Amino acid sequence: MKKWLPILLTGLMAAWFLSTLRTEPDKTFNFTEFGKLPILSSGRVQPMDSLARNSLLQIREKQEANLEPWKGAFGKPHIISATEWLATVMMDSATADQWPVIRVDNQELISLLKLPGKDLAQKQDGKHYSWSQIQPALKALDAETERISKIDASQRNAYEKATIKLRERLWLYVQLKNALQPDGAQNWAQEVADYEKLIPAGVAAAQAEQAGQKYDEAVLKQFAGFVQDFSSMSRFEPPLVIPPQKSGGPRDAWKRSGDVLLDGMKDGAVNPAIHFYAAMINAFQAGNAPEFNRQVAAYRSALAPEFSHELSKARWETFYNHMQPFYNAMVIYILAGVLACVFWFNFSETLRRTAVGLVILALLIHTTGLLFRMVLEGRPPVTNLYSSAIFIGWGACVLGLVLEAFWKNAIGLVVSSVVGFLTLIIAHHLANTGDTMEMMRAVLDTNFWLATHVVVVTLGYASTFVAGFLAIVYIFLGVFTPRLTTRFTPGNTVAATGGAPSPATSSDTFGKSLARMVYGIVCFATLFSFVGTVLGGIWADQSWGRFWGWDPKENGALIIVLWNALILHLRWGGIIRERGLINCAIFGNIVTSWSWFGVNMLGIGLHSYGFMDSAFYWLLAFVASQLGLIVLGCLPLSLWKSFRNQAAPSSHVDGPRTGTPATVAG
Question: 445, 468, 499: which is the final residue of a domain?
Answer without folding.
Answer: 445
